[in-house]
Design a protein that fits this description.
Helix 1 crosses helix 4 (78-98) and helix 3 (33-49) packs antiparallel against helix 4. The chain has 4 helices and no strands. By secondary structure, the protein is an all-alpha fold.
Protein backbone atom coordinates (compact mmCIF):
# COMPACT_ATOMS: atom_id res chain seq x y z
CA UNK A 1 0.00 0.00 0.00
CA UNK A 2 1.49 3.32 -1.00
CA UNK A 3 0.98 6.70 0.59
CA UNK A 4 -0.82 9.56 -1.11
CA UNK A 5 2.46 11.30 -1.96
CA UNK A 6 3.82 8.09 -3.50
CA UNK A 7 0.67 7.61 -5.59
CA UNK A 8 0.79 11.22 -6.80
CA UNK A 9 4.48 10.91 -7.67
CA UNK A 10 3.89 7.72 -9.65
CA UNK A 11 0.97 9.37 -11.48
CA UNK A 12 3.02 12.47 -12.31
CA UNK A 13 5.81 10.28 -13.69
CA UNK A 14 3.20 8.41 -15.76
CA UNK A 15 1.83 11.70 -17.10
CA UNK A 16 5.30 12.71 -18.23
CA UNK A 17 6.48 9.37 -19.64
CA UNK A 18 3.24 8.00 -21.12
CA UNK A 19 1.28 11.14 -21.97
CA UNK A 20 4.21 13.42 -22.83
CA UNK A 21 3.15 16.11 -20.36
CA UNK A 22 6.68 17.34 -19.72
CA UNK A 23 7.77 20.61 -18.16
CA UNK A 24 8.11 22.09 -21.66
CA UNK A 25 4.55 21.01 -22.47
CA UNK A 26 3.18 22.34 -19.18
CA UNK A 27 4.88 25.70 -19.72
CA UNK A 28 2.79 26.16 -22.89
CA UNK A 29 -0.67 25.59 -21.38
CA UNK A 30 -2.80 28.55 -20.37
CA UNK A 31 -2.18 29.94 -16.90
CA UNK A 32 -4.24 28.03 -14.36
CA UNK A 33 -5.38 25.23 -16.69
CA UNK A 34 -3.46 22.56 -14.80
CA UNK A 35 -4.99 23.70 -11.52
CA UNK A 36 -8.44 23.89 -13.11
CA UNK A 37 -8.04 20.33 -14.41
CA UNK A 38 -7.08 19.26 -10.88
CA UNK A 39 -10.29 20.80 -9.53
CA UNK A 40 -12.30 18.97 -12.19
CA UNK A 41 -10.83 15.64 -11.06
CA UNK A 42 -11.42 16.60 -7.43
CA UNK A 43 -15.07 17.42 -8.12
CA UNK A 44 -15.47 14.11 -9.94
CA UNK A 45 -13.90 12.27 -6.99
CA UNK A 46 -16.38 13.92 -4.63
CA UNK A 47 -19.24 12.79 -6.86
CA UNK A 48 -17.82 9.23 -6.91
CA UNK A 49 -17.66 9.24 -3.12
CA UNK A 50 -21.33 10.21 -3.12
CA UNK A 51 -22.30 7.31 -5.35
CA UNK A 52 -22.48 9.15 -8.68
CA UNK A 53 -21.48 6.88 -11.57
CA UNK A 54 -22.15 8.75 -14.84
CA UNK A 55 -18.81 8.22 -16.58
CA UNK A 56 -20.00 10.14 -19.65
CA UNK A 57 -20.25 13.42 -17.79
CA UNK A 58 -17.29 15.77 -17.81
CA UNK A 59 -17.12 18.52 -15.17
CA UNK A 60 -17.96 21.90 -16.66
CA UNK A 61 -14.66 23.38 -15.52
CA UNK A 62 -12.55 20.83 -17.44
CA UNK A 63 -10.23 23.10 -19.48
CA UNK A 64 -9.52 20.82 -22.45
CA UNK A 65 -11.33 18.49 -24.85
CA UNK A 66 -13.93 16.26 -23.22
CA UNK A 67 -12.22 13.12 -24.51
CA UNK A 68 -9.08 14.07 -22.58
CA UNK A 69 -10.91 13.71 -19.26
CA UNK A 70 -10.12 10.18 -18.04
CA UNK A 71 -11.33 9.82 -14.48
CA UNK A 72 -11.16 6.10 -13.82
CA UNK A 73 -13.79 4.62 -11.57
CA UNK A 74 -13.59 3.60 -7.93
CA UNK A 75 -15.92 4.06 -5.01
CA UNK A 76 -13.66 6.42 -3.10
CA UNK A 77 -12.36 8.64 -5.90
CA UNK A 78 -8.77 7.48 -5.35
CA UNK A 79 -7.85 7.56 -9.05
CA UNK A 80 -9.29 11.06 -9.52
CA UNK A 81 -7.70 12.42 -6.36
CA UNK A 82 -4.35 10.98 -7.43
CA UNK A 83 -4.61 12.63 -10.85
CA UNK A 84 -5.68 15.89 -9.19
CA UNK A 85 -2.65 15.80 -6.91
CA UNK A 86 -0.31 15.19 -9.85
CA UNK A 87 -1.87 18.08 -11.77
CA UNK A 88 -1.47 20.40 -8.79
CA UNK A 89 2.19 19.36 -8.59
CA UNK A 90 2.58 20.12 -12.30
CA UNK A 91 0.94 23.54 -11.87
CA UNK A 92 3.12 24.38 -8.88
CA UNK A 93 6.24 23.31 -10.79
CA UNK A 94 5.15 25.48 -13.73
CA UNK A 95 4.72 28.52 -11.47
CA UNK A 96 8.04 27.89 -9.72
CA UNK A 97 9.84 27.59 -13.08
CA UNK A 98 8.23 30.83 -14.25
CA UNK A 99 9.49 32.58 -11.12
CA UNK A 100 12.97 31.08 -11.61
CA UNK A 101 12.75 29.15 -8.36
CA UNK A 102 13.10 25.70 -9.94
CA UNK A 103 15.12 24.71 -12.95
CA UNK A 104 13.63 22.15 -15.38
CA UNK A 105 16.57 19.75 -15.01
CA UNK A 106 16.49 19.65 -11.19
Amino acid sequence: MSSAIERITVERIRQVLEEGFTADHDDLVDVGDLAEAATAYTKYAIMQMGGWRDIDSVPLNWPWKDEDFKPGMDDEGIVCLTKAGALIAAELDRVLRKKGLVYPDE
